[in-house]
């Protein structure tokens, strides 16, 4: 247990990004995530909104509980009470720590906007945060506290995204799309400001750190201006593209 939680540092070497152990763990997380979303989403499709919300409420409590436990343990493990500054919910996937509870417990337009945001970014965050997490799997063993909690929280985000779609909770109204844009822009601005203050890399706005963002970083030659603008621009383009594909699919279905 001491080795699993990383007290005193991991004695095992990291298996590495895209190793068979990483790919096997990724297949497990994503497979269970998709299976549960389909089973529970289909079972609740004709249920009332209160019953549908219970699933999101449980997911919100679980994802925030895991993240809070991780923050406390990492601060305790590092013997540095200020370590929390470097594990704030300011990564793309971390936004779900706020939007999933909003989707579960908020009302009206805010709830609809949160539901849509989880749909748009939950699955993307799950895939990128589980398969594309070169920064984690190059540093920690696959079966370790850091990677297991990361895998679980990203899988919960992906589960919520699929569950909202399958259970029919998504509104995806054009009139709410600008709220999704503003949520993303707000987090990017906050992440960039914190990065400058503590010299960190939230939202990967400063560099790629072994993730697929390295392709963008290399493409712009590591420009401290063009790189963050390109990353934020891609987020906004992705939002517009997701809505467009959703409307096309919905139109064909009808």
Short structural summary:
The protein is mostly helical and 254 residues long. It is 69% helix and 0% strand.
General description of the model:
The protein has 254 residues and is mainly alpha-helical. The chain contains ten helices and no strands. The protein has helices at residues 2-5, 20-43, 49-78, 96-105, 108-130, 134-137, 145-167, 177-198, 213-219, 226-253. Helix 5 (108-130) packs across helix 7. It is globular, with a radius of gyration of 18 Å. The chain starts with a helix and ends with a helix.
> Sheet bearing the most strands, described?
none
Q: What is the count of β-strands?
A: 0
Fraction of residues in helices?
55-70%
Separation of the first and last Cα atoms = 53 Å
**Rg, please?**
18 Å
Low-pLDDT segments: none
Q: Structural class, judged by helices and strands?
A: mainly alpha
How do the helices and strands line up, and which of them pair or pack?
Layout: H1 2-5, H2 20-43, H3 49-78, H4 96-105, H5 108-130, H6 134-137, H7 145-167, H8 177-198, H9 213-219, H10 226-253
Structure keywords:
mainly alpha, 254 residues, single chain, 69% helix
């Amino acid at each position: 247990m001491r080795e699993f939680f990383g007290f005193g540092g991991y004695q095992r070497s990291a298996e590495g990004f895209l190793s068979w152990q990483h790919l096997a763990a990724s297949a497990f997380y994503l497979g269970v995530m998709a299976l549960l979303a389909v089973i529970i989403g289909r079972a609740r499709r004709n249920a009332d909104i209160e019953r549908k919300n219970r699933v999101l409420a449980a997911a919100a409590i679980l994802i925030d509980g895991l993240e809070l436990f991780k923050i406390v343990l990492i601060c305790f493990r590092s013997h540095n009470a200020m370590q929390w500054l470097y594990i704030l919910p300011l990564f793309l996937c971390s936004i779900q720590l706020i939007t999933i509870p909003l989707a579960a417990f908020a009302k009206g337009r805010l709830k609809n906007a949160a539901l849509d945001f989880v749909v748009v970014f939950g699955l993307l965050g799950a895939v990128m945060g589980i398969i594309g997490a070169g920064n984690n799997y190059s540093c920690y063993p696959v079966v370790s506290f850091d990677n297991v909690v990361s895998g679980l929280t990203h899988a919960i985000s992906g589960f919520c995204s699929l569950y909202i779609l399958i259970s029919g909770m998504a509104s995806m109204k054009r009139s709410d799309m600008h709220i999704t844009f503003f949520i993303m822009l707000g987090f990017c601005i906050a992440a960039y400001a914190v990065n400058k203050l503590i010299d960190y890399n939230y939202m990967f706005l400063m560099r790629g750190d072994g993730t697929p963002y390295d392709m963008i970083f290399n493409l712009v030659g590591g420009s401290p201006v063009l790189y963050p603008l390109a990353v934020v621009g891609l987020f906004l383009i992705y939002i517009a593209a997701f809505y467009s594909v959703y409307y096309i699919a919905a139109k064909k279905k009808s």
